[in-house]
Design brief:
Elements: H1 19-46, H2 51-65, H3 74-99, H4 103-125, H5 129-136, E1 152-155, E2 162-165
Antiparallel strand pairs: 1-2
Length: 190
């Protein structure tokens, strides 16, 4: 069996040695862009007072990048704050589109829709137990677990809980002890 540090999560590309670190890197980039946008927004309305939230966003970004525990939940809050702003801006632009049909407004609405969709995905990542484990440095592979002959570690397809299973004994009726979903997906469920 390969070293757990060399394993690649199913569905990910082997360009990074750890897919959680790659996801963390992308989230850091999104946080930096969102922080700049929010700081610019505060500067537009409050002038020089934007320095205060700007310094806070910089501290959160720096701490999140180095995986400090205190910064973890500030990231979905910051991304969520900008997402609410995007939603309000999109509502205003939908109203503008209804008043005067303008292709530029329609394109801007589509861009905002994609930004909202992407932001919600980055927020949801923080609630996923595997991402939390990777962020905190916990092992995803239970290094100290002794497996019986024929057993292997596998993730539940629904909740991604890591389970010790014997693939030769797995049947379509087996369920995950964590989420009660089927461990073997039929063709319709995939």
């Amino acid at each position: 069996m390969a070293d757990p540090d060399e394993m690649i999560l199913a569905g990910s590309t082997p360009t990074h040695s750890n897919p959680i670190d790659a996801l963390h890197s992308r989230t850091c980039f999104v946080l930096a862009v969102d922080s700049l946008l929010l700081t610019f927004f505060f500067y537009t309305f409050f002038g020089e007072l934007a320095f205060i939230p700007g310094v806070f966003f910089l501290a959160v970004w720096s701490s999140y990048k180095s995986k400090s525990e205190w910064a973890y939940w500030f990231v979905p809050l910051i991304i969520g704050l900008l997402t609410v702003g995007f939603c309000l801006l999109m509502v205003l632009n939908v109203y503008q589109l209804l008043v005067s049909l303008n292709i530029t407004t329609l394109i801007f609405i589509l861009i905002l829709g994609y930004a909202i969709f992407s932001s919600v995905r980055f927020i949801r990542i923080h609630f996923h137990p595997v991402y939390r484990m990777g962020y905190s440095g916990e092992s995803l592979y239970n290094d100290g677990v002794k497996l019986a002959k024929g057993e292997m570690l596998a993730a539940c397809p629904s909740c991604l809980a890591v389970l010790a299973i014997n693939p030769m004994l797995l049947s379509p009726s087996d369920i995950c002890p964590h989420c009660n979903s089927r461990l073997v997906l039929s063709g319709e469920e995939e």
